Amino acid sequence: MRRPRALFLVGVAYLGLLMLLALVGPQLRYDPTVKVGVPFLPSSAEFWLGTDEQGRDIFARLAYGARLSLTVGLSVQAIAILVGVTVGVFGVLGPKWARQLVLRVTDGMFAFPDILLAILILGVWNLGLMPVITALAITAWPAVVRLTVAQVSALKDREFVVAARALGAPTPYVVVKHILPHLTGVLLAVSMVDVAGVILAESALSFLGIGVQPPTPSWGGMINAARQDMNSHPSLLIWPCVILSLTVFALNFVGDGLRAMTDPKRR
Predict the structure, then answer these.
(1) Residue 88 near residue 155 (C-beta atoms within 8 A)
(2) Is residue 152 part of a domain?
(3) 172-183: average pLDDT
(4) Which residue range forms the structural domain that includes residue 220?
(5) Can you give the pTM of this predicted structure?
(6) Does the pLDDT value for residue 265 go beyond 60?
(7) Percent helix, strand, coil in the chain (nearest 5)?
(8) Is residue 39 part of a domain?
(9) How far is Cα 37 from Cα 44, in angstroms, rounded to an integer?
(10) Residue 234 and residue 212: Cα distance in Å, rounded?
């Protein structure tokens, strides 16, 4: 029990530092989009992690990339939860014809691989931050629907829900007062893992050149740019890979910890 809790605390501490880096890091250093020194400078008091192939401050770019990744991850997951919970609750408690329609549409969304669907959406739309958020949100909500349907189906026959409906409480009241509070824990736990997946997907899109466009810094874009000089200047590749990997690990540690805390078998 101690090891999972220790990993949870390590994950929380790292995410706290990452959020602090995302909030104040870009203001501490140079503009991450412009040249501020000679290319490929080593770490120094002026450039903490050195400069990249265009003479831009690597620390400032990593910090701005953290801000971008967290913005995309949290925005996509917020949209996915809002849409997914609404559709999922309606899919269980709505009229029968509507339930079948909603669930069939949701099942159809799983026929498309998430990253390929996001690439398709970006290919027929545009490139940039908002298109990336929209494309990833479209691919993220079906998983939340499936989770919500499973949870609401188990809760709708519980004693407190049946009693509330027997007393004449309308369905919206029952959902808000008795069902949604029981979903909060599991949704929060799953969301942490899903945010990690979203950040990885955004990095993959930027790595492929169809996500956030230069000169805006993103971890995926930095990894892609560093490939050309990975043999002579490996630090350009190491830093974004390390911070991306640590972020994914931390989110998974926190998600697993929250899942254990909200497990009904432990109560």
Answers:
(1) no
(2) yes
(3) 86
(4) 2-29+50-266
(5) 0.90
(6) no
(7) 75, 0, 25
(8) no
(9) 12
(10) 23
Residue bearing tokens 């690597």:
58
Q: Phi first, then psi: give them for residue 42, nearest 5 degrees.
A: -75, 175
Question: Which residue in 54, 99, 106, 73 sits closest to 222, CA to CA?
Answer: 54
Measured between alpha carbons, how far is 173 from 164 in angstroms, rounded to an integer? 9
pLDDT in tens, 106-152: 888 888 888 888 888 888 877 788 989 999 999 999 999 999 998 88
- H helix intervals, 33-113: 58-93, 96-109
Location of structure tokens 């559709």: 87
Q: Tell me the residue type at 228.
A: Q
**Domains: count for the chain:** 1
In-domain check, residue 151? yes
* Residue 217 is assigned to a structural domain of this protein: yes
CATH for 241: 1.10.3720.10
CA 223 vs. chain centroid, Å, equals: 19
CB within 8 Å of 105: residues ≥ 6 apart = none
E strands present in the chain = none
| Cβ-count burial 211-231 (b if 16+ within 10 Å, e if not) | bbeeebbbbbbbbbbbeebee
C-alpha 62/C-alpha 103 separation (Å) is 41
